[in-house]
């Protein structure tokens, strides 16, 4: 597994914990996570970038996801799916050097691993709309 895939999976785990009502413990959760998950500096750096960037831009990210999700509200989405959508939308918004197709592909694979049977196609549909809207050119 590549470094960015590992970082994305770690970001999902951290964002999931934050989503489960531990929002005010973000720094503590990150600190504890890195104490128990030893990894390369590259993976840690990209994970931190995804988590912090997603949280700092969450209001905008949630609006973009909601606009792209037909008949779904953010609150109704499974937490795993919601957080994959969040960090992937952050990447689409802020990491222009990574092609949208790569971000979407990675999100689908992570959704298949951690989500439900329908998660992959659900994530694909929404992120495809997000990418078309955000990266029009």
Q: Rg, please? A: 14 Å
- Give the proportion of residues in helices: over 70%
The succession of helices and strands, N to C, reads HHHHHHH
Mean pLDDT: 92
**What is the terminal separation in angstroms?**
31 Å
Strand portion: under 5%
Number of strands: 0
Task: List the total number of helices.
Answer: 7
Described by strand count, sense and barrel closure, the largest sheet is: none
Structural class: mainly alpha
Segments where pLDDT lies below 50 for 5+ residues? none
What would you call the shape?
A: globular
Describe, in plain words, how this protein is organized in 3D:
The protein is an all-alpha fold. It contains seven helices and no strands. It has helices spanning about 5-20, 25-35, 40-55, 60-70, 80-95, 100-115, 120-135. The protein is globular, with a radius of gyration of 14 Å. The N and C termini lie far apart (about 30 Å). About 35% of the residues are buried. The model has no long low-confidence stretch (mean pLDDT about 90).
Itemize the secondary structure elements and their pairings.
Blueprint: H1 3-22, H2 26-36, H3 41-56, H4 58-68, H5 79-94, H6 100-114, H7 119-134
Short description:
The chain has seven helices and no strands.
Key phrases:
77% helix, single chain, 7 helices, mainly alpha, 137 residues, globular
